[in-house]
Amino acid sequence: MAGQKALGRGLSALLPGGENQAGKGSPVSLPIGAIRPNPAQPRKRIDPEQLDSLAESIRLHGIIQPLVVRPAGEGYEIVAGERRWRAARLAGLEEVPVRVLVMNESQSVQAALIENLQREDLSPLEVADGIRDLISRFAISHEEASRRLGWSRAAVTNKLRLLTLPDPVKAMLAERSLSEGHARALAGLDDPVRVTKLALRIVRHGLSVRQAEILVQEEKERGTGLPVPEKVGLKVPEEFAAFSKEKGFRASLKRKGGKITLLLDGLSERQAEGLLDLIRTAGEGVFHPEEG
Fold first, then answer.
1. Which of the four, 4, 62, 129, 155, has the lowest number of CB atoms within 10 Å?
2. How far is residue 9 CA from its own chain's centroid?
């Protein structure tokens, strides 16, 4: 994400010695069994295939970027680099390169959360959970969380809104049936039943984020008695879109008052007559009044 701070700067802000302390400590090798993961790790799931790929890379090239650890009890706790540590165990390494920094538990937890939240490969819900954890653990405001992360206040608030979604919608987001943009639009509604129904409709029809925003606005206005927008675009199935392009006309779908209109633009007279014949042939088998 643009504007996010690098880990080194994030660590320096948390350490008593500032930038000098964060930059100290040449890499040393530690037994892999002497290192344990950080319980504040926001990542809920590590992709097994990606971990295997990283392990293979480590077998071939070793660990290029040392882990960051802190003394904890009789061993060391990971501040940054848990994926590398897990992959190194898979690769059969007995020792790993680390930088040892003296940090208290509070500093370690904050550093681990911030480092992981700045990664591109966390899911939107993992990021939202991590931000909530950062705020609740250290009793800080959204404004302070945004400052520590190097994000805008709006970005932090939008991430946290994802946690208000119903569980079925969160599952769609986790499975990537819905994008984060779709989920943010849905978070603007309070009724979990309506949100879930809209989410299913978005997935079923392959609606864009903009179309989802229009649907949500329509639901809001319906609930307040305001006029409902007349139409919402739907996605034309890919096969039909390709067919219409091949035949030289354009197709689009529009929703209006609960009904769907199919628009065919650029049909030749022969094509139009053929389509009408097809509709007549289909007859009552397809075109019949909807049941109430």
1. 62
2. 25
